[in-house]
Design brief:
heterodimer, A: 120 residues, mainly beta, B: 112 residues, seven-stranded mixed sheet, four-stranded antiparallel sheet
Chain lengths: 120, 112
């Protein structure tokens, strides 16, 4: 079955750029929408945005000025860049798939998540 | 944004009991053209990613025990967990996928 795995630095300095990649295995990145979701320690879930296999994006408005998604279909990967980070961006970052081909739908499956801490 | 509000924030139950978690959306998430409610429920255990339980408000994901059921329409939804088991200890989230930004409830912590 489809599996997702996040990778990237676990520590980012304030004002710098957080960069993460999600690798998709067991299935093609085509035909689906791919999500980034984050969860600050001890808090709830926040949808950051999604990207389609063709590269169209939809970002949460409050983060739109700082976030960029990209997709590499040849590597079956998609990526997140969040610039000008602050301590408020410290969170577990998850990648997930929109469950229904062609529309977003619910989110399934999810990656295991990676903790990114913003600190000097 | 569609605001999702869950109640209660936490729930303490006993083994074998029935738990009810409510979720209210600030806007209708029933799509009129297909009569489907764009609402999902997830279970999150400590240190794990959320696990999908229910989609379309009442369709159980494959492999999810039939003790879990979802109901409701429009703006008011319920997740019911019957015959509570020790492994049901988790935080439960509702989520709307009707419109962006997709939003989650604040979570309900279930203790047994």
């Amino acid at each position: 079955q489809v599996q997702l795995q996040e990778s990237g630095p676990g520590l980012v300095k304030p004002s710098e750029t957080l960069s993460l990649t999600c690798s998709v295995s067991g299935g093609s990145i085509s035909s689906y929408y791919w999500m980034w979701i984050r969860q600050p320690p001890g808090k709830g879930l926040e949808w950051i945005g999604h990207i389609s296999y063709s590269g169209s994006t939809n970002y949460k408005p409050s983060l739109k000025s700082r976030v960029t998604f990209s997709v590499d279909t040849s590597k079956n990967q998609f990526s997140l860049k969040l610039n000008s980070v602050t301590a408020a961006d410290t969170a577990v970052y998850y990648c997930a798939r929109g469950a229904v081909a062609g529309i977003v739908g619910w989110f399934d499956p999810w990656g295991q998540g990676t903790l990114v801490t913003v600190s000097s | 944004d569609i605001v999702m509000t869950q109640s209660p924030d936490s729930l303490a139950m006993s083994l074998g009991e029935r738990a009810t978690i409510n979720c209210k959306s600030s806007q209708n998430v029933l799509y009129s053209s297909n009569k489907k409610n764009y609402l999902a429920w997830y279970q999150q255990k400590p240190g794990q990613p959320p696990k999908l339980l229910i989609y379309w408000a009442s369709t159980r994901e494959s492999g999810v025990p039939d003790r879990f059921s979802g109901s409701g329409s429009g703006t008011d939804f319920t997740l019911t967990i019957s015959n509570l088991q020790a492994e049901d200890v988790a935080v439960y989230y509702c989520q709307q996928y009707y419109g962006t930004p997709y939003t989650f409830g604040q979570g309900t912590k279930l203790e047994i």
